[in-house]
Amino acid sequence: MSNVTVIGTQWGDEGKGKIVDWLASRADIVVRFQGGHNAGHTLVVGDQVYKLSLLPSGLVRGKIGVIGNGVVVDPKALMTEIDRVTGQGLVVTPETLWIAENAPLILPVHGALDRAREAARGEHKIGTTGRGIGPAYEDKVARRAIRICDLAEPETLDWKLDELLLHHNTLLAGLGAETFTKEQLKDFLTEITPRLLPFSCQVWDRLDEARRAGRRILFEGAQAVMLDVDHGTYPYVTSSNTVAAVAASGSGVSPSSVGFVLGIAKAYTTRVGEGPFPTELHDQTGRTLGERGHEFGTVTGRPRRCGWFDAVLIRRAVRVGGVSGIALTKLDVLDGLDEIFICIGYELDGQKIETFPSAPGAQSRVKPVYETMPGWKETTAGARSWAELPAQAIKYVRRIEELIEAPVTLLSTSPERDDTILMRDPFED
Ligand code: IMP
């Protein structure tokens, strides 16, 4: 019996929510290990629609949810989310939600700096979610973050706030944005401390106990490999590592606990925010994919950019992300197209290349080299077995497997939880 780690292989929004929800029902504990409330997904359970950003999905299934040390926690956003789902009937208590006491906090200064910097970047803006994720990770690495455990030590908090404000107010003033007083931040923290502290604990220790007891752990990644701060389309990325290796360091478990790595890939590609996107479509087909796939950002509501499946990028995500198998989602969005394109390589300045370059200039100049396949007229929406799929759709999936050098172990054919074709149960691997 293995644990499972789920990561995105494209630029996020691959439909992780549904897959994670499905897997959560077979797990005992669901762990978030990176990112923050920049992530977002919608879970439909019966007649309830849950919108989650920071809370691990397992809570919806009555499982223990864990926020690991690799996550940056906005305490206000967290409490708002807890209040919302509690209002919908979920039970969120320190018994069901464990938050790492060494997780760094996102404070109001972080969001303010994120937005002020984006405004100042002009045409080179990253298109962040504006929620302070980047500045909070910067503070962690610069060793000036306020962590949850600091809330229990007023004397520590006092000098740490001075250090934090010295840095942030200098930057905010330089950018012409409003600065913050120590009192403002103290008031903010005083208000949230009594609610937040009871959830905090030594997550690594509890996870180790769970491992010894043979409990199944699902690690729920946020964002995706192409947004990874090292392996993605830097600088148009998020500020954390999103690959499966981080499930270990971001929650305090051994690398061997990561288990089966399920990479989620959409049957086409989307991206929100700025940055290179070789297979992006600016034509009617792109608009059709966006409309059929309901491609609007869950967090910001921005329309997603749409394009063809890029096998080269996913092959890379499979390799650097340690992907054992792929869950292919939204195949039904391609139903009825005459022809389907798959990117199998690139051309850069007249030269054929087989991997995606690292420098931003080259990344924006690459032209995709496509292989085309006939589409299918039948609908794949709602298929629950391989036999229900049109032959041409099966050929498309098989070709993808060859190109990305990984098996498709799960196929999702509609937003409904049960419209899923399972080739291999990742927990049984
Ligand atoms: P940040 O994470 O808010 O700093 O944003 C950096 C980049 O990552 C932007 O392009 C965002 O649109 C993108 N991003 C962050 N979180 C997500 C997500 O959950 N899905 C898709 N894109 C995301």
From TrEMBL:
EC number(s) from the headed UniProt entry: 6.3.4.4
Pathway named in the protein's UniProt entry: Purine metabolism; AMP biosynthesis via de novo pathway; AMP from IMP: step 1/2
Residues involved in Mg(2+) binding: D13, G40
Reaction(s) catalysed (UniProt annotation): IMP + L-aspartate + GTP = N(6)-(1,2-dicarboxyethyl)-AMP + GDP + phosphate + 2 H(+)
Compartments where found: Cytoplasm
Biological processes, Gene Ontology terms: 'de novo' AMP biosynthetic process; IMP metabolic process
Binding site for substrate: T298, V299, T300, G301, R302, P303, R304
Positions bound to IMP: D13, E14, G15, K16, N38, A39, G40, H41, T129, R143, Q223, T238, R302
Pfam family, one: Adenylsucc_synt
Active-site residues, as the UniProt record annotates them: D13 (proton acceptor), H41 (proton donor), K140
Co-factor note (free text): Binds 1 Mg(2+) ion per subunit.
Family (UniProt): Belongs to the adenylosuccinate synthetase family.
Protein name: Adenylosuccinate synthetase
Originating gene: purA
